[in-house]
Amino acid sequence: MATIYGMSILTVVLYGAFLFCIFFGAFLEYRDVNCPNIFSTNCGYGMGAAYVEAKPCTDNKNNNKNKDDSLNVLLDKIKITAKYDINSVYWRRILIAASIVSFLILYMFSGRCPTGIEWVTAFLVTYISFYVMIVTFQYWVAKPALEQLDILLDQVKEKCDDKSKSKK
Questions:
Q1: What is the pLDDT of residue 65?
Q2: How far from chain centre, in Å, is Cα 144?
Q3: Of 61, 91, 104, 163, whose Cβ has the fewest other Cβ atoms within 10 Å?
Q4: Do residues 131 and 90 make contact, with C-beta atoms less than 8 angstroms apart?
Q5: How does 37-48 read in b/e, with b if 16+ C-beta sit within 10 Å?
Q6: 84-98, pLDDT tens digit by residue?
Q7: What is residue 111's three-state secondary structure?
């Protein structure tokens, strides 16, 4: 069987694919967290795709609030900001974490670099475990809390609408 540096061709190909996926996933994650979209040049802190639409209006000179946003717009921006975690893309984070964790566990227990097949198998088990854990947490904890937030913000809108109608 053909080898490269003592590893089978299959192992080298799988290692290459994993490394590519890890670095490409990290690149996409960085762009998602720091840019409104993948092709944007307007990137930086607080410019993430999941919440950039919710940026508060500010005056660039002295950072004072503008009067541009109505109460309803501000409440919608609060909803968008609060839903950041739900709107995030998890497969990339899980791919990166599962690749690293599965490799490290195999390396620590066997004392050698795992073969490509061992790594793929451990990766799939780790990926599925992490994914199920995060999605379950979102469904049972984050989703009900955000539904409650939606109701509360709608109630605030109604109260404010009622007050503005009574003043007229």
A1: 54
A2: 19
A3: 61
A4: yes
A5: eeeeeeeeeebb
A6: 877 778 888 899 999
A7: coil
Structure-block tokens of residue 149: 């937030």
Q: Using pLDDT thresholds of 50, 70 and 90, give the confidence band for residue 102.
A: very high
Total residues found in the chain within this entry = 168
Whole-prediction pTM: 0.71
Among 72, 89, 95, 132, residue whose Cα is nearest residue 20: 95
Sole residue written with tokens 């490509």: 116
Helical axes 116-137 vs 90-110, angle rounded to 10°: 130
For 83-142, where are the alpha helices, taking DSSP H only? 84-87, 90-110, 116-137
DSSP track, 14-66: HHHHHHHHHHHHHHHHHHHHH-SSTT-S---TT--TTTGGGPPPB-TTT-PBP
Residue scoring higher pLDDT (69 or 13): 13
**What are the structure tokens assigned to 134, written together?**
């995060």
Per-residue pLDDT tens digits for 29-75: 888 888 887 777 877 887 777 777 777 776 554 454 555 677 888 88
